[in-house]
Amino acid sequence: MKHDVLVIGGGNAALCAALMAREAGASVLLLEAAPRAWRGGNSAHTRNLRCMHDAPQDVLVEAYPEEEFWQDLLKVTSGVTDERLARIAIRASSICRGWMRRHGVNFQPPLSGTLHLARTNAFFMGGGKALVNAYYRSAEDLGVRIRYDAPVDSLELDDGRFVAARIGAERIEARACVVAAGGFESNRAWLREAWGEVNGEWPADNFLIRGTRFNQGVLLRQLIGAGADAVGDPAQAHMVAIDARAPLYDGGICTRVDCVSLGIVLNRNAERFYDEGEDFWPKRYAIWGRLVARQPGQIGYSIIDSKAVGRFMPPVFPGVKAKTLGELARGLGLDEAAMLRTVADFNAACRAGSFDHAVLDDCRTEGLTPPKTHWARPIDTAPYYGYALRPGVTFTYLGLKVDERAAVHFGGKPSRNLFAAGEVMAGNILGKGYTAGVGMSIGTAFGRIAGSAAALVAAPRARQASPHAAV
Ligand SMILES: Cc1cc2nc3c(=O)[nH]c(=O)nc-3n(C[C@H](O)[C@H](O)[C@H](O)COP(=O)(O)OP(=O)(O)OC[C@H]3O[C@@H](n4cnc5c(N)ncnc54)[C@H](O)[C@@H]3O)c2cc1C
Question: Are strands 161-167 and 170-179 parallel, antiparallel or unpaired?
Answer without folding.
Answer: antiparallel
